[in-house]
Design a protein that fits this description.
This is Uma2 family endonuclease. The protein is of the alpha+beta class. It has 5 helices and 13 strands. Strand 4 (about 70) and strand 5 (about 75) form a beta hairpin. About 30% of the residues are buried.
Length: about 190
């Protein structure tokens, strides 16, 4: 098997802007993104809808998965949902690349779960603006939240009942799991 040729972040950004399909970038490699399932999309839509009201009037914005985010110098992703508090900052070389997420949500899929839990979370931890990282299962009621502590360590919390409440301390917002999983059969 022939090794893939590595590309620079600038080459990735130029390539990404000239193609209709979205791809993420990891350490010199362009990774094609697969489509999402109906439950995955329902959860994302529920998050966007439910986060609008608690963030209204705050200096925070919520964005869907179409906003490319630079996590590190060699990692660009498309999180499922992003919250940015304060002025959104964009890459000086690419005005469509966010650089300061406050909260990132990833809806777990069988093809992405290992990466979302492992190397992707490891990269997100290097992003200084990120305060909370939330993983949401689509095949069962399970929400996991990692919160950055002042010491730099990450505190883990798992919620597994529809009546549980996800509290996003960095943006002073709460969502019930029943709202997150509204009309999702799990």
């Amino acid at each position: 098997m022939e090794a893939r040729q590595k590309v620079s972040p600038q080459e990735y950004l130029a390539w990404e802007n000239s193609h209709e399909c979205r791809s993420e970038y990891r350490d010199g490699e362009i990774l094609a993104m697969a489509g999402a399932s109906a439950p995955h999309n329902r959860i994302v839509a529920n998050l966007l809808g439910e986060l609008h009201q608690p963030l209204k009037g705050k200096p925070c914005d919520v964005y869907p998965s179409d906003l490319k985010t630079r996590v590190t110098a060699t990692r660009y992703t498309y999180p499922d949902v992003i919250i940015v508090c304060g002025e959104p900052l964009f890459d000086s070389e690419a005005s469509d690349v966010l650089t300061n997420p406050t909260v990132v949500f990833e809806v777990l899929s069988p093809s992405t779960e290992a990466a979302d839990r492992g190397e992707k979370f490891s990269a997100y931890q290097q992003c200084e603006s990120l305060q909370e990282y939330v993983l949401i299962a689509q095949d069962k009621v399970s929400v996991e939240r990692y919160t950055r502590q002042e010491s730099g360590l990450w505190l883990y919390e798992r919620l597994a009942k529809r009546e549980d409440t996800l509290t996003l301390s960095s943006v002073s917002a709460s969502l019930s799991l029943d709202e997150i999983y509204y009309r999702v059969s799990v």
